[in-house]
Write a structure and sequence with these properties.
Order of helices and strands: HHHHHHHHHHH
Largest sheet: none
Number of strands: 0
Number of helices: 11
Mean pLDDT: 82
Distance between the termini: 41 Å
CATH architecture of the domain at 86-291: Orthogonal Bundle
Strand content: under 5%
Length: about 300
């Protein structure tokens, strides 16, 4: 006897949990490669240092000199555990200033892109100088700005904003103009105002470009804040890095621990921007594929 049609939804529902569990298993397996890569790198690091230091007596000048280039990873972890409080305070100062400059630079860059997309003469007047401003090495610009601003916190924020506004301006401008011509013709056909065209078409189309720029600028703003601290700051990651470099023989493990924290802060900053993109721009194809469990 043929099965009644009313049993079809039950079959679909019964098959749903395995699909969800398969998607969950896929996500778990997707996290394994980075962990395996990190484990292999740490093991290689440990082995290379062992080969370099094998036969050297700990505490001797030759041992300290060899370890100053590449200390044991477990020594680095021990150094971070001992100095975690001061390292985290310095990281918080640097990240806070970088985040403020990141936000200000993003706001300036987004505003410039809107103005240049609205009026061609504004783009022709400023675009070339915006590009030229990025040709100045930040390591040369920081001392000049420090002589003008004379405030450590303001300098960090300014340099972070300086490194943020350019990628935001260029990418958002491209996004505002990368709209579907048919959608633009449709809005023109219903007599949509320029503001409605921007609000309903151009600004949503530019959102993926904006977050692509913000991901790039997130690490750049952090580097800018650290460079500003190297120029004569009193607090932050750059100050600690500079201090430990002067005592590289005795502080190599702490210096490497600080470098590891800096890299981790950059990764977390980058991840926060990526997470915000997933929340605010969920219509992108890669996010829909991830939600459905497909690669």
């Amino acid at each position: 006897m043929a099965r009644p049609l009313t049993e079809t939804p039950a079959i679909t529902q019964a098959g749903a949990p395995p699909a969800k569990s398969a998607a969950g298993a896929s996500r778990v397996w997707g996290r394994l490669p980075p962990l395996l890569t990190l484990s292999v790198l740490v093991l290689l690091w440990e082995g290379v240092v062992w080969l370099r230091l094998n036969g050297l007596q700990e505490g001797t000048f030759a041992y300290r000199q060899a370890q100053s280039y590449l200390p044991y990873p477990h020594k680095v972890l021990e150094a971070y555990a001992v100095n975690a409080g001061s390292f985290l305070r310095a990281g918080g100062i640097t990240l806070g200033n970088a985040a403020i400059g990141f936000g200000l630079g993003a706001l300036v860059g987004y505003s410039l892109a809107l103005l240049m997309a609205r009026a061609r003469w504004i783009e022709r007047s400023f675009y070339l100088y915006i590009v030229g401003s990025q040709m100045v090495p930040i390591i040369a610009l920081a001392p000049i700005l420090y002589g003008i601003i004379r405030d450590e916190t303001a300098l960090k924020i300014t340099i972070a904003a300086y490194l943020t506004f350019f990628p935001v301006t260029v990418n958002v401008l491209r996004g505002l103009r990368s709209v579907d011509p048919q959608a633009l013709d449709l809005l023109h056909s219903i007599a949509a105002s320029p503001w409605e065209i921007y609000r309903k078409l151009r600004i949503p189309a530019a959102m993926p470009f904006l977050f692509n720029a913000l991901r790039i600028a997130s690490t750049g703003s952090l580097i800018g804040a650290i460079v500003a601290e190297l120029m004569g700051g009193n607090s932050g990651l750059g100050v600690l890095i500079l201090t430990l470099q002067y005592n590289s023989y005795g502080a190599a493990d702490r210096l490497w621990a600080l470098i590891g924290e800096t890299a981790l802060i950059g990764v977390l900053f980058f991840g926060a921007v990526s997470l915000a993109e997933r929340w605010l721009v969920p219509w992108q194809p890669e996010f829909r594929r991830a939600a459905s469990g497909r690669d």
